[in-house]
Amino acid sequence: MAARTKARKRALDLLFEAEQRGVDAAELLRERLAAPVTEHPLPELTADLVSGVAERRGQLDELITTYSQGWTLERMPAVDRAILRLGAWEVLFSGDVPEGVAISEWVSLATELSTDDSPRFVNGLLARLAEVKPTLA
């Protein structure tokens, strides 16, 4: 697994854990940076992704809800919510990687970790956000 893919997966793990535990993702990130739970420190990309989502969570949730066509955030599997938040942040705000690459990476994680329908849903929603990105400024 490529380093950036691993970093994305760790960001997904952190967001998912924060939601399951009912804690703030930024606070969980600070804890993990201060006292890592693995022998490998968190990659900078992981921290950037989690921080970015934490800073813009309300806006991301609003965009995901608006463009998910009839799916509320509560109705989505928890892993899909985390994937969509991270993917939406990376597509809309990161500027670090081409949108198509980011979408492909998040779809791949949805394929690996979520339901059979999730990859298509994640792909469609992130592609739609990439399409409307110029109008969101």
Automatic annotation (TrEMBL):
**Entry superkingdom:** Bacteria
Q: Which UniProt keywords apply?
A: RNA-binding, Transcription, Transcription antitermination, Transcription regulation
Residue span, NusB/RsmB/TIM44 domain: 6-130
Q: Which GO terms describe its biological process?
A: DNA-templated transcription termination; transcription antitermination
Q: Does the keyword Nucleus feature in the UniProt annotation?
A: no
Q: A Pfam family for this UniProt protein?
A: NusB
Any single Gene Ontology cellular-component annotation = cytosol
SUPFAM superfamilies, alphabetized: NusB-like (SSF48013)
GO function term, MF aspect, one = RNA binding
Task: Give the family per the record.
Answer: Belongs to the NusB family.
Described by its record, this protein's role is as follows: Involved in transcription antitermination. Required for transcription of ribosomal RNA (rRNA) genes. Binds specifically to the boxA antiterminator sequence of the ribosomal RNA (rrn) operons.
Instruction: Spell out the HAMAP family in the cross-references.
Output: NusB
Protein name as it appears in the record:
Transcription antitermination protein NusB
Organism of origin is Phycicoccus endophyticus
